[in-house]
């Protein structure tokens, strides 16, 4: 076979792998480090009232996997709700209208673009359409961005009374030395010491705490629901993430993609129940 033809066929084969279907077919079951197929993973997840599905925001394979989990749970008859990092409480009326089918796509796109401006609509659109078509509620989880930015720049102690009133009452963005060490390992691009670094850590903790309180509050009001939480891998991680800030005995399971510094060698049961196996 001529070299040029062989190279063309190889390119087409790789392109097919990248563009066909859901490219994630296996996950590492962390408790015994066994690889299982996605269908088996979903069967194991289906008994928990809260499922954290971590992502890299710009990875389409992660969103395809999230949709597959939602479809499978819906087929099992679960009464679903989707919690999303991508939205703040101010967008909740628009989310409610979307899930009820009362708002056109063009208007909802504007809400999304205001909320999550750096990631294209198409990354999440299938999830949004699935929620709308099945009247599945979407819950805004994130802290107000202006408050997060202020904490990152000046620290939690700088917030005004009005800003504090816009947060759940028991959120204080406390950071321990253990959390600071976690941040140093997980976010090495930031500075590693001093007040500026502590302020960045407080902003991350603020988001974790607010998202956890939103989940707790919703599940307390709707105890028969199954919530699928869609959030970045750092927030979905058991260590240093939202799950660690949940209150009470709310049961949950965690699925993560490989996110630095986590990989198949370093992940522990405290981090996640499953780690996705990616082709590339």
Automatic annotation (TrEMBL):
Q: Which residues form the Haem-binding uptake Tiki superfamily ChaN domain?
A: 41-246
InterPro entries membership: Cofac_haem-bd_dom
Pfam family membership, one? Cofac_haem_bdg
Keywords, ordered alphabetically: Lipoprotein
State what protein this is by name. ChaN family lipoprotein
């Amino acid at each position: 076979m001529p070299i040029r033809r062989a190279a063309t066929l190889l390119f087409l084969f790789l392109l097919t792998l990248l563009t066909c279907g859901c490219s994630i077919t296996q996950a590492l079951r962390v408790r015994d480090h066994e690889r299982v197929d996605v269908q088996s993973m979903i069967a194991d997840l289906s008994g928990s009232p809260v499922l954290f599905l971590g992502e890299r925001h710009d990875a389409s394979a992660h969103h395809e996997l999230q949709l597959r989990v939602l479809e499978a749970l819906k087929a099992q008859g679960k009464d679903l709700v989707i919690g999303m990092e991508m939205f703040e409480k101010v967008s909740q009326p628009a989310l409610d209208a979307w899930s009820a089918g009362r708002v056109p796509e063009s208007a909802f796109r504007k809400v999304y673009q205001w909320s999550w401006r750096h990631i294209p609509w198409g990354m999440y659109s299938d999830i949004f359409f699935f929620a709308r078509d099945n009247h599945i509620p979407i819950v805004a989880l994130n802290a107000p961005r202006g408050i997060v930015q202020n904490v990152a720049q000046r620290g939690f102690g700088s917030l005004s009374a009005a800003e504090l009133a816009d947060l759940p009452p028991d959120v204080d963005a406390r950071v321990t030395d253990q959390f600071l060490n976690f941040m140093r390992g997980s976010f090495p691009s930031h500075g590693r010491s001093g007040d500026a670094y502590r302020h960045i850590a407080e902003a991350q903790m603020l988001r974790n705490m607010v998202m956890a309180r939103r989940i707790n509050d919703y599940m307390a009001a709707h105890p028969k629901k199954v919530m699928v939480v869609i959030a970045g891998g750092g927030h979905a991680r058991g260590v240093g993430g939202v799950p660690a800030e949940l209150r009470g005995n709310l049961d949950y399971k965690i699925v993560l993609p490989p996110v630095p510094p986590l990989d198949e060698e370093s992940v522990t049961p405290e981090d996640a129940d499953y780690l996705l196996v990616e082709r590339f």
